[in-house]
Amino acid sequence: MAGKIITISRQFGSGGRTVGKLVSEKLGIPLYDKELVEKVALESGFVPQFVEENGEHAPGKTFLSYAFAPQGVPGVMNGMSTADFLWAIQCRAILQIAEQGPCVIVGRNSDYVLKDRADCLHAFIHADLAFRADRIVRLYGESEKSPEARLQEKDKRRSVNYQHYTGRTWGASENYDICLNTARIGIEAAADIIASLAKS
User: Fold this and answer.
1) Rounded to the nearest 5 degrees, what angle is found at the Cα of 56, between the Cα atoms of 191 and 29?
2) % helix / strand / coil in the chain, to the nearest 5?
3) Residue 74 above 50 pLDDT?
């Protein structure tokens, strides 16, 4: 299987970002995670925090939210809504990164953006709710919302964004080359499997 460009899609709290970092280290290739956010921020003119929060998320939690999202002003952002403008910049950045050579790209619907490239390996990282809830509390601390509510909200927004821009179902196995459950096999083992596939 060709896998020189690896995309990592993930449920919030499943360890997908860490898996991506480990894969990049094991293969000695660049990682684009925060780096991609910074690139999109530079090209779009938005601050990185705004890109981080909105680049993978729908303006709201439902498809109806898109109807009420701020619309573009003629001559500003090419007349596109903020969400559509960010999507266009993000797609262009991902395509440019892929042209530069082997790398790992975390999130940002990169599996869809690069779906027509034969040299990609697309992975989806998931885990059960209890594993993810425990992990986000350890990593990010407590908040006014329960860990389960935080997980469900974040994943819902990613799912809506993905379906809106790709027409596909986020997390559906047919959209990826491999789906790995980090609660069952562990984060390190998931990275080992992906790195091994990328070398084959």
Assistant:
1) 35
2) 55, 10, 30
3) no
